[in-house]
Amino acid sequence: MGVKVFTDTEGKECWAMLSDDYMQVMLDDVKRDLAKEGKKLRGKVFRPCAAGYRPEVDVTPELDDKEVAQYQAYMGIFRWMIELGRVDIITEVSQLSSHQAMPREGHLEACYSIFAYLRKNPHMSTIFHPSMMHVNEQRFKVADWKDFYGDVKEGIPEDMPEPLGNPVKMTAWVDLDHAGNLVTR
Length: 185
Prior knowledge:
- The structure is a single chain.
- This protein is of the alpha+beta class.
- It has helices at 20-36, 65-83, 90-97, 105-120, 146-149, and strands at residues 4-9, 13-18, 125-128.
- It has a domain at 4-128.
- Strand 1 and strand 2 (13-18) form a beta hairpin.
């Protein structure tokens, strides 16, 4: 399915997954499609989408039926890339995915920007390391969201099977854009 699963030894044996092969095939296809139109991917790209680009306020012309199908195919490619571990494009893909019913030229250009970013940053792996990561929680500002979300608790089914094996803790770092959509907030 386009991913390499392998063991990595960085002090401790662990599983890792790499999507380089799928990404290279996908990039070759995109470059070939663009070449047919006399276009190519931009060279200097430092982030998945241009700084300040807001797809929700894009008023460029709507795509024709063929371009809409291509845009939707790109969304599928990006979603699979995220499943394979390319979480660095998840925010931009999420924003662009909400425009699949009526994408515009600017949205398609943003897709090409993501492809150019992936071409420039091809190697990213997801490592499933068996040790717990120690994070100094003192470094983070404490925020109380109870006024916004209420006093919610995770719903755990009564008939849930007994957990087996070691506990798993996922650590992820995100760049938050709370209420950043200029139309819906």
